[in-house]
User: Which sequence fits this backbone?
């Protein structure tokens, strides 16, 4: 009786959205839930872990898949498209558990409390784009779950730099705050400013090297962000296969919105597009400056292609 009352209190305290569709009948607990439970027991200093279990059989569990980045690479679009699959339960907001010290210090109990309720057959996914470029994150994720499946969506590094600037620019405009032109960030003493953070985030091979210290390539699926924008279905099919999901998403789930200029989603007759903040026009940049940017990324991109064993159709890469 005491256990029942404790469970009821926990459910009241945790106001998370609970899946409405019926759970798949399963006698045995899934391996992912077993892993989550063991990890929580091991990492709880006071051994006071309490699971939030709903009466319909759903519960909050550690994610089995994380979208680790990259910032302005298309992570929100990827998550929204992946969420079309009935076996995906996605955290709504960016959790920043592994990269923010105050969050990480709260422990795994706090982390699991940020997750959606899901059924045993579902895969829980969280997305925090900053993970990819944060040095401490790969080891922390590995220590939590060595079997984690990671999704990384990348786009042309030069285009990503422009998108990075554009987001910060509009954030300042909405707050009626002035913001320097992109040229003021890209140029320093007449040369390309390689200390600009947006440029550093596009040095994919440096950050990828850090992740490969802990996870092999068969645990990291790289989504081509440029192709996802132009033709999303083939890229999502690859993600389904990587996550070992049944093929549930199909071409009819996507339609091109001529007004917005990009693909939107169709799910059970309901249509929706990404937030208006997505797909904003980039600032006009002098052609010579763009060429400098492309030239700068040429060698880093080659190193990245060699590292992951595949190439991408990016401006800065010229086949030899």
Assistant:
């Amino acid at each position: 009786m005491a256990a029942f009352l404790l469970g009821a209190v926990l459910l009241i305290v945790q106001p998370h959205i609970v899946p409405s569709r019926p759970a798949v009948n399963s006698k045995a607990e899934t391996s992912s839930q077993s892993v989550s439970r063991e990890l929580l027991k091991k990492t709880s200093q006071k051994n006071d872990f309490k699971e939030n279990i709903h009466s319909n059989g759903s519960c909050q569990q550690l994610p089995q898949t994380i979208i680790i980045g990259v910032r302005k690479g298309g992570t929100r679009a990827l998550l929204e498209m992946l969420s079309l699959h009935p076996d995906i339960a996605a955290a709504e907001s960016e959790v920043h558990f592994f990269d923010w010290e105050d969050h990480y210090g709260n422990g795994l109990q706090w982390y699991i409390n940020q997750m959606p309720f899901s059924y045993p057959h579902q895969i829980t996914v969280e997305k925090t784009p900053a993970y990819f470029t944060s040095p401490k994150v790969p080891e922390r994720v590995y220590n939590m779950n060595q079997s984690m499946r990671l999704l990384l969506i990348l786009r042309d590094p030069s285009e990503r730099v422009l998108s990075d600037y554009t987001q910060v620019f509009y954030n300042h405009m909405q707050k009626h705050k002035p913001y320097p032109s992109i040229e003021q960030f890209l140029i320093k003493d007449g040369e390309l400013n390689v200390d600009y953070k947006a440029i550093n985030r596009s040095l994919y091979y440096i950050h990828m090297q850090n992740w490969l210290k802990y996870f092999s390539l068969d645990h990291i699926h790289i989504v081509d962000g440029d192709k996802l924008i132009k033709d999303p279905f083939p890229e999502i099919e690859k993600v389904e296969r990587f996550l070992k999901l049944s093929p549930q998403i199909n071409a009819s789930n996507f339609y091109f919105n001529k007004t917005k200029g990009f693909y939107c989603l169709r799910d059970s007759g309901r249509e929706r597009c990404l937030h208006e903040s997505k797909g904003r026009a980039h600032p006009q940049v002098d052609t010579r400056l763009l060429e400098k940017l492309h030239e700068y990324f040429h060698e880093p991109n080659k190193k990245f292609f060699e590292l992951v064993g595949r190439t991408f159709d990016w401006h800065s890469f010229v086949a030899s």
About this structure: The CA atoms of residues 25 and 238 lie 28 Å apart.
